[in-house]
Amino acid sequence: MSEPTSSKSSKSTSIDINNLCLTFETQTEPVHALSDINLQINSGDFVSLIGPSGCGKTTLLRVIADLEKPTSGTITVEGKSPHEARLDRSYGYVFQTPALLPWRNIESNIHLPLEMSGYSKHEQKKLSQQYLSLVSLIGFEKKYPWQLSGGMQQRVSIARALSFNPDMLLMDEPFGALDEITRDRLNEELLHLWEKTQKTVVFVTHSIPEAVFLSSKIVVMSARPGKIINVIETNFSKDRTFDIRETPEFLEVSQLVREGLKEGHNDGS
Amino acid sequence: MNFLTIFKSRSLSGLLCLVFSISTLISLQLNEINDHALNPFIVIIIAAISLALFVNRQQGIFLLSICFAALFSGVWSVLSLIHSLNADTIIGLDVWLFVSSLWFLTWHNLVQLSAIKTLNKFMELFLTVVIPLLFGSWIFFLWEVITIGMTVPQVLLPSPSLIWQVFDGAGATLFADFYQTFVRSAIPGFIIGSGSGFVVAIAADKIPFLQRGLIPIGNFFSAIPVVGIAPIMIMWFGFDWQSKAAVVAIMTFFPMMVNTLVGINETDKIDRDLLHTYATNYWRELLSLRLPNAMPFILNALKINSTLAMIGAIVAEFFGTPIVGMGFRISAEVGRMNIDMVWATIAIAALTGSMFYGVFALLERKITFWHPSMRKS
Amino acid sequence: MEANRILNIIMSGSVGPVVILVSIIIMVWYAGAVYLNSSFLIDRYEKNNIDWSLSELATDSWSMERPVLPSPHQVAKELKKTIWDKKITSKHSLVFHSGVTLSSAMLGFAMGTFLGILLSVGIVYVPALDRTLMPWIIASQTIPILAIAPMIVVVLGSMGIVGLFPKATISTYLCFFPVVVGMVKGLRSPNIILVDLMHSYSASKAQVFWKLRIPASIPFLFASLKIAIALSIVGAIVAELPAGAQGGLGARLLSGSYYGQTNLIWAALITASVISATLVSVIGRMERSINKRMGLQT
Fold first, then answer.
1. Structural domains present in chain A
2. Chains C and A touch (3+ CB pairs under 8 A)
3. For site-directed labelling of C221, which of A63, B330, B364, C45 has its Cα 20 to 30 A away?
4. Where in the sequence is the domain holding C185, given as residue range(s)?
């Protein structure tokens, strides 16, 4: 098991998690969703959390987002507690499903967080235009979410998460419900976005190629109790395309992740 | 070749129309021809058209318009016949047979109209209005034929034409009743009841304790026959409109409260989490997520309440009222056996109720256009 | 600590809040009785030059013969008198009157449910019926049938149709509507994939109906029946309002209102509410047990 390495990078730490545990009380017995998690994420990193279902990767993301409270351990986000970070609107969260409000059209769905942060009408309009063009959805402003395909809806929700320019992007299996072709295209678009905006991204997935392709750091997790098995750093060039999926390096990293997952599986059983 | 295959995919109502129009002709021949009989010419036309309907498989817009023209002339001939009769003459078998054949022609037309598939918005709107209207007019026609043709006593059921005459004679009285019952009792009661139901629901929402208690109690009160409180309200608020408005307010309060409470709590967890990540405060969350989400429930309550308001106001007037109001008019004119006046009042009440309901149905379409149940067209 | 936990359990359900809210309602009721009855009593005190204190006023206003608002215990006494003490066959027994109302309500409920299901099947299977009938069914409910119910009963009576049937027709008229609306929704609820699955078995129309559409509509049916059964009681009571009705809770309400017997009005009203709430919960229980057997949640 390799220790998470953060000191070699000169960048500042964005998320710092130490000895974090989370236990859910249920009627039968307590469930240890997260057990002794230690993880440092630098700003500008693209970190994937990968593991079998039930390994707590979504829970970990929700702890970072202050949607769950840890039972013990410490966590800081941008040097603050997750609660303060949330109040400062430090991150944009993208859910498994688009979570667009059906009574608002695309544009005003993107305006939603901007309204909360007190942007003027003029700025709202400007920002929504800017981010809609980033996800190439110009021309769909007045459409309603249910008139768009699933892939387009998820792009809207990414634009919405970016619109108020948060430091971080937290994504919970955002492309899980999409078909593979759409998923590949959105992966490329997301990578492109990351390169352009230099945001810290924490990305939950259960797809190995997706994790390897997108990430600068892959966190492999195992279930029951949810813990970190391995942290793998990758060194692909920032302007990579899907062609790298055929390269030996890519296959090598994939193999490493697969072995990590297998190891965790054997541990668990 | 099977005999039945001849009939397959042919218009059954066309066949029945043919059978009945031919039997009308036969029965016309059997009877002595007098001045007050059906015009055999029109019967023959109807028979010819129904034959065409049965034989012809392709139904075009041309044939359909001919059907309509024939239908209207048939209806017209029957109406003019029964109105030329003496007050105590009962119409003969031939007319009944003819009315039956006209019914099958109408049914055929309705089926044809319903089968029209169109993407044109105005055509669609036209069809949704015309088809039920056609059916409704047929019911009124049948009502007219039965009441006049069978000389039904007026005290039991007056004919539509007779009821129509009341509007001419007693228009001012009817309007005064409408004003007293709808404008002075139903509307204020509706606004007070729905408004306070909404406010209480919003207030209770902040206190989960109150909420858990109010939903079962609200459901219990909704099951109460609230018309029963009318005598009590009259005792408290007097005979005039205030007591009626109070009955309406109580009737409309609980549907609104329960629907609003349920509606604002029906949000998806994922949407709540989303707003949570924006560090949204309570009131903002209420305004931008929970209230919009509750709109289908709230409009449903308003639709229910719109009919309850009319019913509550009218029924409450049975228990005591000044000498004006629709409920008073109904009970008083029943006592005087002026049933045509009663039916005129009922017609106004139904029309008012339908329009009141229609306002909220339209509003529902406008406001909750995004809801899956509204998206279809 | 333990007591706190028990308190928590009670308060986190709906039993605790309901009990507390009901007690608050009863307290407000007592206060309201004092407030509404006091003006009459104070008049009387002053006329007879009697000195009075607040406590006397309270006890007097809770024990008036014909109060504007009777106190809960007076209503309870009236309920005991008319339910337990009177013989069931007596004209003053609320049990007797409840029976009269209940029987016509149940007949109307049965007829309304049958009519509603019949219409909904027609609407779902015949497109022409869908377009012609549905708007009129909605419009029919805006006719204040409750307002003309007494007249209908009188008219049917003059035609020689008396007894249970005229009253039941009013309940039928109110009942069929929620059943039609719910059943149309329910029969149309199976999604296209399931209909296609049935097609792939080359199921006949009748098989699709009995094996797919009917089971799918059961939850909708029960939701409608709960509304319909409460309406059937309302219908029966209103149908009993015309003067001279032989019995029923509606007739009791009317006579109570004529003779200013407020205790009687409240007793009849509470009996009616309890009956209708009981019927709704019976349907609810049937719903739960059938849903359980069908493997649905709650």
1. 8-90+168-248 (3.40.50.300), 100-165 (no CATH)
2. no
3. B364
4. 94-293
Residues C47 and C172 occupy one common structural domain: no
pTM: 0.78
Q: Give how far C14 is from chain B: nearest CA, Å.
A: 5
For C130-189, the pLDDT digits (tens) are: 888 888 888 887 777 776 777 777 777 777 777 788 888 889 998 998 899 889 988 988
Residue B336: strand, helix, or coil: coil
Given the cut 0.85, state whether the ipTM is greater than it.
no
Q: Does C246 touch chain B (CB under 8 A)?
A: no
Mutate to test the interface with B, among A58, A116, A160, A162 (most CBs of B within 10 A): A116
Question: Which of B180, B190, B214, B224 to mutate: most C Cβ within 10 Å?
Answer: B224
Q: Where are the alpha helices (DSSP H) in C52-203?
A: 54-61, 72-80, 94-125, 127-140, 145-158, 164-187, 192-200
β A31-42/A168-172 pair status: unpaired
C114 plus C49 within the same structural domain: no
- Please tell me the distance in Å from B3's CA to the nearest CA on chain C: 24
Q: How deeply is C57 buried, as exposed, middle or buried, from its count of CB atoms within 10 A (0-12, 13-18, 19+)?
A: middle
Residues C286 and C146 in one domain: yes
In a domain, C77, yes or no: no
Residues B99-111: tens digit of each pLDDT: 888 888 888 888 8
Report the residue of chain A nearest B371, measured CA to CA: A102
- Pick A244 or A204 by higher pLDDT: A204
| C108 lies in the same domain as C177 | yes
Per-residue DSSP letters for B115-169? Answer: H-----HHHHHHHHHHHHHHHHHHHHHHHHHHHHHTT--TTT---HHHHHHHHHH
Topology adopted by domain B167-367: MetI-like fold (1.10.3720)
Contact list in A for residue B368 (CB cut-off 8 A) is 103
Judgement on whether residues C63 and C110 belong to the same structural domain of the protein: no
What is the domain count for chain C? Answer: 2
- Is C137 within 8 Å of chain B by CB? no
Residue A268 pLDDT grade (very low, low, confident, very high; cuts 50, 70, 90): very low
